Task: inverse folding
């Protein structure tokens, strides 16, 4: 039924082809009224989703469970590492084999890097990676891309600024790699000590994707179609003073968005939770799309659940 | 030939005495011979072959290690595994004191069960029932990418993590 989608599992974003991504986006678009509760849907009636969360992430778990239930499916699982069998010394491989025996799809969140790949190797049912280790989180990347597509009509053709901790933030690494499949212009905004790693910028160069690096948001703000903000973590800096100095320059406030300081249709995104990066007065401007972005997580996850359960 | 040179020639002979039949692995990076033995599984095994190791041998390209296995002809497939830590190694198959086949080790596409991931947070280091697996993503220097956490490892880090 969905010929563009050939996956058994969703482990990493780089396994996706452009075709597969657009299949997911098209289906997610159709699911929006269902996600909003305006339309009934029973596509996953009788199906059981296991959400195995070896570390807490309430937002992600609710988003998956909400998606499943809106499509008339049911959920089982655990959300606290303390209640999991891993505490009793069971291997993840065994937990997965057992869970695969009584569910139709498994959503896994795990503190160890590569856990989803291991799970996929041992599972008879589809695995969706809801984060393993240092921020590999393909459904986040898909919902980010979907948000850009919805806001701008297409992903290609945009000038996208990505700001924050670009050195350690794996969310922005996956996003950048995924964006490099499209025809975009990228600007990386970070303090010099937190620049995008060479292996990522080198890969962009090889693909012929135009990109530049700047120190401050205001160096490039008026050129951007999208500004993707992320957190800069305190612990990345040698002293509190160093951190404060940088944190101040990585804050978006309403007065920065006035008149001709940015494009009228600039879209500001953020994976949430935010800390100090976006002032509350920005929330009421037309630029603020981070809550829509979070809401887009539900139709994206619906699309994946449907594609995998029918595959 | 000067006296010193003669002595040097003699010394060389003693170090690298020919074998009647078997495998001589030459041009192993200095200090890697024992790890090469480990990769070839010639240490722990109950083996009947005489294995001799020469380490820190002078050559035109600097110091190197040499390894000899008498009575055993190793096949290319097994030997290519050692290219991860000894990419310049050459393999000589000897029969009746003569080299009958010379082979330069080639990097495999994948490395399974040879090294472990250096990332402590990787699932491959958590007592799960799996064999560590890497994609060979670079030649010079040899670069391995973990199939699980995608962390890369090169040069000395690879030989430090031989299983
Ligand atoms: Zn690893």
Result:
């Amino acid at each position: 039924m969905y010929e563009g989608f050939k996956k058994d599992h969703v482990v990493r974003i780089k396994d996706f082809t452009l075709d597969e991504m657009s299949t997911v986006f098209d289906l997610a678009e159709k699911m929006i009224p269902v996600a909003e509760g305006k339309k009934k849907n029973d596509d996953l009636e009788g199906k059981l989703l296991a959400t195995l969360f070896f570390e807490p992430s309430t937002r992600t778990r609710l988003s998956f469970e909400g998606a499943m239930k809106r499509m008339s499916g049911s959920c089982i699982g655990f959300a606290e590492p303390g209640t999991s069998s891993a505490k009793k010394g069971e291997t993840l491989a065994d937990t997965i084999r057992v869970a695969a025996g009584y569910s139709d799809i498994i959503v896994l969140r795990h503190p160890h890097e590569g856990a989803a790949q291991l799970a996929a190797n041992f599972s008879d049912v589809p695995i969706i990676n809801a984060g393993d280790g240092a921020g590999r989180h393909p459904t986040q990347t898909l919902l980010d891309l979907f948000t850009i597509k919805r806001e701008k009509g297409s992903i290609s053709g945009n000038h996208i600024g990505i700001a924050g901790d670009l050195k350690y933030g794996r969310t922005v690494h996956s996003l950048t790699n995924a964006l490099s499949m499209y025809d975009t212009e990228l600007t990386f905004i970070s303090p010099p000590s937190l620049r995008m790693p060479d292996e990522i910028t080198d890969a962009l160069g090889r693909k012929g994707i135009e990109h530049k690096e700047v120190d401050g948001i205001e160096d490039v703000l008026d050129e951007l179609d999208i500004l993707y903000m992320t957190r800069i973590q305190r612990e990345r800096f040698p002293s509190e003073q160093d951190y404060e100095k940088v944190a101040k320059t990585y804050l978006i406030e309403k007065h920065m968005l006035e008149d001709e300081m940015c494009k009228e249709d600039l879209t500001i995104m953020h994976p949430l939770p935010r800390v100090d990066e976006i002032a509350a007065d920005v929330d009421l401007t037309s630029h603020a799309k981070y809550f829509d972005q979070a809401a887009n997580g539900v139709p994206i996850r619906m699309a994946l659940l449907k594609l995998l359960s029918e595959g | 030939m000067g006296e010193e040179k003669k002595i040097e020639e003699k010394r060389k002979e003693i170090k690298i005495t020919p074998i009647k039949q078997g495998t001589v692995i030459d041009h192993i990076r200095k200090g890697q011979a024992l790890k090469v033995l480990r990769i070839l599984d010639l240490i722990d095994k109950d083996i009947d072959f005489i294995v001799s190791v020469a380490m820190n041998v002078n050559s035109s390209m600097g110091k190197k290690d040499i390894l000899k296995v008498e009575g055993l002809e190793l096949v290319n497939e097994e030997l290519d595994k050692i290219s991860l830590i000894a990419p310049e190694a050459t393999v000589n198959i000897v029969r009746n004191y003569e080299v009958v086949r010379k082979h330069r080790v080639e990097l495999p596409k994948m490395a399974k069960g040879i090294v472990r991931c250096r990332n402590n947070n990787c699932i491959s280091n958590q007592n799960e029932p799996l064999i560590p697996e890497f994609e060979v993503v670079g030649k010079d220097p040899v670069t391995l990418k973990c199939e699980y956490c995608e962390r890369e490892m090169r040069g000395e880090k690879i030989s430090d993590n031989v299983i």
User: Anything to note?
Assistant: The beta strands of chain B are 21-29, 50-59, 62-70, 90-95, 98-104, 110-112, 133-138, 143-146, 152-154.
